[in-house]
Design goal:
With 56 residues, the chain is mainly alpha-helical. The protein contains one helix and no strands. It is rod-shaped, with a radius of gyration of 22 Å.
């Protein structure tokens, strides 16, 4: 009986971790798209040079 409970808990933990990792992959892809769009559409600064689109 204890083995069954341990296996079910392990399956629940690994299933939850897999779901969280899947969501994090989609979040990482969204951040990558925003970064690429910001890189492509950055404004032109003084002197015709493209400025940095980030502030750090």
């Amino acid at each position: 009986m204890a083995v069954l409970v341990i296996v079910l808990l392990l399956a629940l933990i690994l299933g939850g971790a897999g779901f969280v990792l899947h969501v994090l992959w989609w979040l990482a892809m969204a951040v990558l798209v925003v970064w690429l769009l910001g890189f492509l559409f950055r404004s032109v600064g003084s002197g015709g040079k493209r400025g940095r689109w980030y502030r750090w």
